[in-house]
């Protein structure tokens, strides 16, 4: 890598966990992206890309008629789709100690690109690995325990309050992605973990698929 013998460096995951002899086998797995830095908290000069590979679960197809079912019962399916998107924000802000802010914006300015629905919250944010987990169909929030780089212990079942308030809507882990592609052609998730300086961005595009 062209590193002089008198220079020090560290190798970290995209979640800024330093690779050591003790955690090497745990953190370094096939396909993982690593950073070679002068220090763990070094600012990145350029955006980096990380490829995500996954196979959709069969329930993606089996349950894909969900919104058609709602429509056939005489209900407008759009509120159900928006509820799934808001559900992500409810989950992200459930442990906020201060103000819990969730905004929904409908963007129709052609100069800013195609029309879009933006859901913005001040939640805890997601690491690159957690964004990866969100992208995987049928990986429900109750089984997202394999996050070996996360500082979070995984999903905690919310308090027994109405489902519309406790982020328990998307039980099967399919709703959020299905809602996105019911409303539009692509999803862009931008997230900054509360304890990190890095901003992570995930794009799921029908065109790319």
TrEMBL record:
One of its GO terms (biological process) is double-strand break repair. It comes from Struthidea cinerea. InterPro entries: HATPase_C_sf, SMCHD1. Pfam families: HATPase_c_3 (PF13589). This is SMHD1 protein.
């Amino acid at each position: 890598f062209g590193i002089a013998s008198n220079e020090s460096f560290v190798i970290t995951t995209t979640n800024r966990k330093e690779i050591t002899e003790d955690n090497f086998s745990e953190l370094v797995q096939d396909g993982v992206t690593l950073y070679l830095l002068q220090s763990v908290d070094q600012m990145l000069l350029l955006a980096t890309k990380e490829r995500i590979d996954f196979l959709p679960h069969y329930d993606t197809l089996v349950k894909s008629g969900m919104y058609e079912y709602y429509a056939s019962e005489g209900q407008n399916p759009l509120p159900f789709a928006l509820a799934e998107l808001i559900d992500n924000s409810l989950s992200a802000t459930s442990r906020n100690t201060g103000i819990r802010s969730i905004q929904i914006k409908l963007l129709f300015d052609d100069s800013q690109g195609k029309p879009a629905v933006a859901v913005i919250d001040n939640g805890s944010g997601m690491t690159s690995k957690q964004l990866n987990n969100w992208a995987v169909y049928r990986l429900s929030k109750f089984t997202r325990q394999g996050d070996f780089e996360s500082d979070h212990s995984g999903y905690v079942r919310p308090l027994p309050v109405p489902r519309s308030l406790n982020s328990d809507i998307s039980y099967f882990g399919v709703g959020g992605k299905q809602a996105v592609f019911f409303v539009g052609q692509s999803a862009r998730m931008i997230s900054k973990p509360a304890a990190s300086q890095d901003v992570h961005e995930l794009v799921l595009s029908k065109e790319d698929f």
